[in-house]
Amino acid sequence: MTDFDGPAVSFTTDLGTLALFDPDVLDARIREPSDWWQEGSLLSLPEIASGAVIILPLGLEGDSSARISSGSLTELEQGYARQCFSGLSIEVTSGRIFLGAGERIPGDGRGLAAILPGQGGFYEVPKGHYDVKVQALDWHFDDRWYGANGSPKADAPPDFVFFLSPRDAASPYQAPEALPVLIQLRNRPEVKIAKASGTSLVGEARRQTRSKIPNAAKAAKSQPSQRLKAPEPAELVALKQFFEDDPQLSAHRDPAPNLDFMGARFEICPANETLKNHVWSVDDIFKKVTRVREQVRVLEQKVNSSELRPMEKMDLAESVTGVYQSLAELLVF
Q: Which of 12, 88, 95, 197 makes the best surface tag, with the fewest CB within 10 Å?
C-alpha cells in the first residue's frame, strides 16, 4: 500500500468544523452559497451520504491540528491516544485532498486554488475510494507542549489523526447513523479548552485550574445554570424607573414584547410610493453577517502572517477589530 503519511496541519475555525475532501469532488458546489452545507443535517448531504467527502463538527472554535496517515500512530502519539471513530469515507479523484477548517469548503464562487496559513493543508493521495477512521489525541494536559507564553509549541502532537485505507469502489458505502463531535472523542473532562483569542494557562496555574474543575462540575449539577447579563446603561435604568414609579404611565404600559426574531422580516418602505418596498428576512441578514465575518477572519490571518512592520500590523488590527465590533452591534436588537 502507498505510504502517504504527512505532517500535521494547523488551522483556525470560527465555525467549529473540520473538513476533509478532494477539491475536484466539490467543483459543482463552487457557485452555491458558502453555507450550502450548513442548511440541514450533515448526513443529509449527498456528498457525505455517498462517502465522497468528510465534514465533522469539532465541538469548539479556535485552533486545532490534524494529519492523515496510511499506517499507525507514532510512538509519541500512542501515549496520548483516546477514542476513535470509524465508518467514514472519502473519494479522491485528483490525487490530492484538503484537510482543515470548514471555512474553506467551496462556495460563493470560491474554490481551493490556494489557501492561507492557518486554514489547513493539502496531502498527496492516490486516486480511489478510502475508508476513514479518526483517532483523537489528548496531549493538552502535558505542560511540556506549551511555551513560556502559554501557546502550544510547533512540535506538539496533532489533535486528530485520520487513517485512510483503500476501499473497493464497487462495495456499497453505508454512512454512520450519527457523526461524532470530535472534541468528545478526547474524553478528558478535566482539560480546559481555550479559544484562540483567549489566554492559555501554563505551569502551576494550569494544574490548579484542572484540580478545581471536578468540584465546579459537581456544583454545576446541583445548581441551575445562569447566564450573566451585561449591566444596563444608567439612562435605561432611569427611564424604566420613571415608568414604574408613575402609576398613570404604569397602568398603560404595554406588556413585554416578544423578542424571538427567528423567521422575522425587515421591510423597507420608501417615502416615494412609486418605489417598491424591499423585504429582508432576519435569517438572511444573519447569514450575510456571518459571511462578512469569515472574510474579515481571512484578512486578519493574512495581516498577521504578512511581512509588515509591527506598527503597521497594529494599525490594521485596530481597523479589523472595529469591523468585528460593528458586526456584533448589528446583531444586537
A: 197
% helix / strand / coil in the chain, to the nearest 5? 35, 25, 45
Host H or E run for residue 278: strand 278-281
Q: Which three cell numbers stand for residue 112?
A: 481551493
Give the residue from 95, 166, 121, 83 showing the smallest Cα distance to 7: 121
CB 47 within 8 A of CB 106: no
- pLDDT tens per residue across span 33-50: 989 999 889 999 999 999
- How does pLDDT run across 311-320, given as a tens digit for each residue? 777 778 878 8
Alpha helices in the chain (DSSP H): 46-49, 75-78, 203-222, 234-245, 247-251, 282-304, 310-330
Which residue type does 212 have? K
Looking at every residue in the chain, the average pLDDT score rounds to 77
Tell me the residue range of the domain where 299 lies: 259-330
The CATH number of residue 161's host domain is 2.60.34.30
- Are 59 and 181 contacting, i.e. CB atoms less than 8 angstroms apart? yes
Residue 216 is given by DSSP the state: H
292 assigned to some structural domain: yes
Cell of 263: 423567521
Q: How many CB atoms lie within 10 A of CB 162?
A: 23
Overall number of domains in the chain:
2
pTM of the model: 0.58
Q: State the DSSP string of 78-126.
A: HTTEEEEEEEEEEEESSSEEEEEEGGGSSBTTB--S---TTBEEEEE--
